[in-house]
Amino acid sequence: MTERVPLLLVAGALVVPWTPAPWLGAAVVVGALLVLVLADLAVAAPLTTVALARDGDRVMWLDETATVRLTLTNGSPRRLRARVRDAWVPSAGAGPYSHRLDLEPGASGTVETTLRPTRRGDRPCVRVSLRSYGPLGLAYRQSRQRTDDRRTPPWTIRVLPRFTSRRYLPEKLARLRVLDGAVVTRGRGQGTEFDALREYVVGDDVRSIDWRASARRSDVVVRSWRPERDRRVLCVLDTGRTSAVRVGDEPRLDAAIDAALLLSSLAARAGDRVDLLAVDTAVRASVAGVGQQALMWRLVSALAPLEPALVETDFGLVAGEVLRRERKRSLVVLFTALEPAALGEGLLPVLARLAARHKVVVAAVHDQQLARLTDTAGSGSVDDLYTAAAAHRALAERDRVRAALTRHGVEVVDAPVELFASRVADAYLAMKATGRL
Q1: Looking at the chain, which terminus has fewer C-beta neighbours within 10 angstroms, N or C?
Q2: Do the Cβ atoms of 227 and 435 come closer than 8 Å?
């Protein structure tokens, strides 16, 4: 029964006291109302003949909206007056709550659900619930939950990471063009590649003179150089327990994904081959050497469903996978946390053989809250003193881990979340300019 039935009962109760026989009047009112409800229920269209179908968006970016359409076809000979509830997981941000449809026999109608997800990843629909109302609106038919589950057409929308660091890309690409020689004259640097011969001009390094070519041309010519191309860049994301820690308004893993996307896009534009690996106790995602055009799509699709795992990362597995996949010398950027327990017992024992084969960069997000907590000691409260002492100890442990990594020849990028992606890209460009890849 609907909310109209209690209203009719109240209206009937107001009339009953004015009848000659109140008890008989009450019975007549209740009986008449019951007959109307049963008649309305009998006339309501059955739900067993309703067919459902979906279409709409399959992929979207976080912070944007998507639309999924649900089409209902009335296969019964009765008019369908339906209320439709298209339910999704809470993080999908589905709305509106329900829809109204009025369909003639054999007709079809479409309702639209707008999704505004609050998290990246795969967001599935849950269930489509239907109610078929009678013409008086006093009663409705509703199928059981198991029937709704069988009838619901499956649909999943993949929410891609927001990639906020893309705002840095024009500035990084401008610096890359400078390194590449599109803006300034190509110079010579350690590890750079030979590009072409040109005439000597005043100010050129005499060590760049090609004496054999000069003798053939009867003129002084010098070699020009360009930054290294076709290098290998491997982004390794630690998806273990430390990646679940919230730094600012998002987990550490989301900041690592954002930085990895910026670095991958920049490296692909520079002509380098980009690979990606996400590991904790198993390989969670893997993208191997793709072209520049397909790179971003492959990366965001692989990174979107990643979630932190509440396990200790197996850095032995990380090192083994890197050495197995990358035979040539590569730039390995490990996105993890500068946590003494995790790195001291897991990464440092395998770092030597990893750094012997590849150039390793450890990139970690710095929590600025620790620095703020060190300033609470001046308040004089005992609790604040203990808090400041704990913050000082955590910062000192980070410094010891950073020093230990540096002794192994590892470059460390430790930056706040607002600048993290930019600092990682800057480290790549600096190595590109000096030929250290």
Answers
A1: N
A2: yes
Instruction: Give yes or no for a contact between 106 and 75, defined as CB atoms under 8 angstroms apart.
Output: yes
**Angle of CA points 220, 224, 227, to nearest 5°:** 170
Residue entry with tokens 């040109």 = 198
Query: What average pLDDT does the segment 103-117 reach?
Result: 93
Are 350 and 385 found together in one domain?
yes
- Alpha carbons 359 and 101: distance in angstroms, whole number: 62
- Phi first, then psi: give them for residue 148, nearest 5 degrees: -60, -40
Structural domain boundaries enclosing 256? 232-434
The per-residue DSSP string of 323-371 comes to HHH--S--EEEEE----HHHIIIIIHHHHHHHHHHSEEEEEEEE-HHHH
Residues 317 and 218 in one domain: no
Let me know whether 295 and 205 are in one domain: no
| Residue 423 within any structural domain of the chain | yes
Q: Residue 328 has what pLDDT?
A: 84
Phi, psi torsion values for 278, nearest 5 degrees: -120, 120
- Kindly report which listed range (164-168, 310-314, 368-372) carries the lowest average pLDDT score: 368-372
Residue recorded with tokens 């793709």: 290
Is the same domain home to 203 and 236? no
Contact 348, 408 (CB under 8 A): yes
Instruction: Return the number of other C-beta atoms located less than 10 Å from residue 127's C-beta.
Output: 13
Angle, helix 252-269 to helix 169-180, in steps of 10 degrees: 30
Q: Which of 162-171, 246-255, 381-390 has the lowest mean pLDDT?
A: 381-390
Mean pLDDT over residues 162-188, rounded? 74
Question: What CATH number is given to the structural domain containing 152?
Answer: 2.60.40.10
Asked if residue 327 and residue 253 are part of one domain, the reply reads yes
Percentage above 70 pLDDT, the chain: 87
Name the domain count of the chain.
4
The two structure tokens encoding residue 335: 């996105």
Do 371 and 355 fall within a single domain?
Answer: yes
Which of residues 173, 207, 226 is at a domain's end? 226
If you count them, how many residues does the chain have? 437
Q: Measure the CA–CA gap between 72 and 46, rounded to whole angstroms.
A: 13
Instruction: Provide the 8-state DSSP code for 209.
Output: B
Strands 66-74 and 108-115: antiparallel
- pLDDT for 156 equals 94
Query: With 0-12 CB in 10 A as exposed, 13-18 as middle and 19+ as buried, what is 241?
Result: middle
